[in-house]
Amino acid sequence: MKCILKKRAIFFIPVLMILFFACTKDVYEGEDPKKPDSGNTSGIPDDFDFTTVKKAKLTVDVNDQFNGKYFYVVEVYDANPFASKSANLLGKGVGKKDAPFVVDLIYPLILKNVYVKQTDPLQRESVKACDATVDVINCTFGSVAATKSLSDTNLRSGTVLSASDYPLPADYTDLSDVSDGYQLQNGNYYIPEGVLLNASKLKSYWAGNSALYVAGTVTLTNWYMANNDKIIVLPGGKVIINSMSGGTIGQSNTMVAVHGSTASKSEGSIEFTSGSIQVDPGATIINDGTLIAKTLKINGKVINNGTMEITKNGSGGNFDQLLRNASLVMAGSTSYFENNGHCSSATFGSVQGAILINSCSLDIENKMYCDGTDIELVDGSLFKCDEFKGNGLNVNMFGSAVVKIEKSATFVWNNKIIGHNVDQFIPTIMMKSYIGGSGEGSAFFGGILNLICLSDFSGDCKMEQGVTLSRVPVNAVAPTTCNDDGIEENPGSGTPSDPKFPIEVALSTYYIFAMEDGWPGNSDYDMNDLVLGVKNFIYSQDKDNNVVSMEINLDMRALGATKKLGAGVQLDKVIPSSIKSVTRTALNDISVNNYFVSSGNGVEGSSYAVIPLFGNAHAAFGVPNGQITNTYKGADAVVSGNILCKIDFTAPVAMENVNVNALNFFIVNGGDSNNRSEVHLAGRIPTEKVKGDTNGYKSDDNMMWGFMIPYDDFKYPLEGINIMEAYPTFANWCKSGGTQDTDWYKHPVDDKVFTE
């Protein structure tokens, strides 16, 4: 409650005295709490406590590679600490084998995920995301990924389609002595080993239903394939295609198949020496040998079980141009590319509906853009490029599959990447930098997956708990015949060590206490009579994660009261003898107004430890007594000095006994140290100095006189503006029992709140 006196030319002294006492009379005298002037608050549930924070039991099992010899440091944040420099620390401690880090974690109720960071004894950092909507959170950093060698039998051995499925038939026409201009039509034709046919020998236009089997060498120019035409390159055979009519393998059921090697013969090969080669729907390339082309555009089916080299150099322009101009393009919804061998290209692009399966090595020298593509990366495979962009992807990775992105990986929207372990083998994505969109919808990483970001991690993504995000490779991936020597484990600092105890735990969530001073009578509910910010809680913890000492770092935000207010905090789970000493800054004189009387250790109370913060809010703010501060629109903001309260304990205490939920903050609005009038948050117990009933600091309609907000940018209402006017969704939050509009405090009416 406040009383505002406007200056007039003449005042009678008796009138002044009446006004003064009217403004300062609200001292608790034992009367029952009255219904405050809180607006339309009917319907607030009896059990609603106005809390804006949640408590969950968090257990973190570290990935102990040192058999319990050293401690791992565990930190918990409200955002991904790799992505956000402003992520708030919610908890911190140590763990090791058979001694997990366990804490009662307190965090804003609106959080959907918390992020747990493990720092191992080699100073290597890893992060996991955990569901924050549950009451019990179990976070396991898991076992080490594969470090032993994989045999080829661990790898996918190919596909149901192979060039060997098309052997030389028994009936064929031998082309050894063919004359120039020979026409192929409706039959099987054979070029034996040692036979060389130049471009003039065969007509470029085949009439259809023809199959040419090549064990020797043939050169084709301006080649055209009709329906059901096939060219089969047998072991040791070689085909050189200088040009193709229209640049397409494009008729129904046309096929190019290249055999691999045998015990006595080398692999077959085919080379497209010029122009762009396009594989249209209905056409198929199967390569078990060597295929070389300048560019390749896939609309049909390409299966590479051998070596495929796409030789056109260059960056391909910007990412969007790759969908048309990349040297290797999956250009349509009918595109199917299965790579079970080694494929290299300067650039790569794929479009909506395309299907890419990689079982061995896909190596893109420059940029790669996959848009709306389904991708499967098989155990032991490598998917590598210089720069990557993905949009609308559906990616499944298996076993020891590896993705290596030498520079940036950009995920635009709706990308889903799921890892599947195969026995102990876990897929890995390693990139230099991550660039995500402005929301979690840009990328979803799920399943079991190791995600390594060597440099910057910017933007958002969503990670399931089975995903581990690291700064460096913590787990090695063993080399295979496909994966470019695998991934080598980073040694970190090289020498393991324990953290130095006690460790400092600087919890950085900014809490705002907004209080009305009208208890037990009416209030205007502008929630600005005393607005106090807690910048951070700093704890010193021992190796058992117990608290040796703590600091409360506060600042005054607003004083909408003219009366003299004090403030303190009761530790509801700590007895006074557990406190060795309390140290305060000079501004917070607790003896003012006779509100507090503390013993030699700076503590008041017999059952619970009460820590007086200050006896005069105006003095603590650094303003004259009675001055309303930082509540009027347009007024220059007054910045208060820092208020520091340091508490040393006689013996370490459990964190759950001194976390923010265990700190019972209150203001004093009258009385004295023997019979005090206190205003607490709803549901909290008063100190022993309060003699009367408080009704749990809730009114007849279940309204409160104060709340705590875990948000540094909370804008309290202007002088005389009810909280329900300033925050339109506040009432629904209350009436729903806190289940709806949980972020109400982020949505003010701008002209009804104080801004600095």
Structure description:
There is one protein chain. By secondary structure, this protein is mainly beta. Helices cover 4% and strands 38% of the residues. It contains 5 helices and 51 strands. The chain has a 14-stranded parallel beta sheet, with no helix packed on it. A 10-stranded parallel β-barrel has the order 19-21-24-27-30-33-31-28-25-22. Strand 49 and strand 50 form a beta hairpin. It is elongated, with a radius of gyration of 37 Å. The two termini are 23 Å apart. 50% of the residues are buried. Mean pLDDT is 90; it is low at 3-36 and 144-158.
Helix-strand layout with pairing:
Blueprint: H1 13-24, E1 53-61, E2 72-77, E3 89-95, E4 101-108, E5 113-119, E6 125-131, E7 136-140, E8 173-174, E9 187-191, E10 196-197, E11 210-214, E12 217-220, E13 230-233, E14 238-241, E15 248-249, E16 255-258, E17 269-279, E18 284-287, E19 290-298, E20 301-304, E21 307-310, H2 319-325, E22 328-330, E23 336-339, E24 342-345, E25 348-350, E26 355-358, E27 361-364, E28 367-371, E29 374-377, E30 382-385, E31 387-391, E32 394-398, E33 402-411, E34 415-420, E35 428-435, E36 443-447, E37 449-453, E38 457-458, E39 462-463, E40 467-470, E41 503-507, E42 511-515, E43 530-541, E44 546-558, E45 566-571, E46 579-584, E47 609-614, H3 617-621, E48 642-654, E49 663-671, E50 676-680, E51 706-709, H4 723-726, H5 730-735
Parallel strand pairs: 1-7, 8-9, 9-11, 10-12, 11-13, 12-14, 13-16, 14-17, 15-17, 16-18, 17-19, 18-20, 19-21, 19-22, 20-23, 21-24, 22-25, 23-26, 24-27, 25-28, 26-29, 27-30, 28-31, 29-32, 30-33, 31-33, 32-34, 33-35, 34-36, 35-37, 35-38, 36-39, 37-40
Antiparallel strand pairs: 1-4, 2-3, 2-5, 5-6, 6-40, 41-43, 42-43, 42-51, 43-44, 44-48, 45-47, 45-49, 46-48, 49-50
